[in-house]
Here is the input.
Amino acid sequence: MSATSDVYLPFDEALSRYEPIIGIETHVELGTNSKMWCGCSTAFGGEANTHVCPVCLGLPGSMPVVN
Here is the structure.
């Protein structure tokens, strides 16, 4: 048995109870020799995992700074 309900709030009431937040994710290719948030190389064709650092990997505690 499920605890879900098929009861929907009227649109105006839903807007008054919740704040809609919309995020946008973009992907771009920059013509640079290093990555945007660290100094790692952007060279194509290197060995696997050789152009990465803690910032690139998003490891906890790493602090990205615009390069």
Q: What stands out?
A: The chain has two helices and no strands.
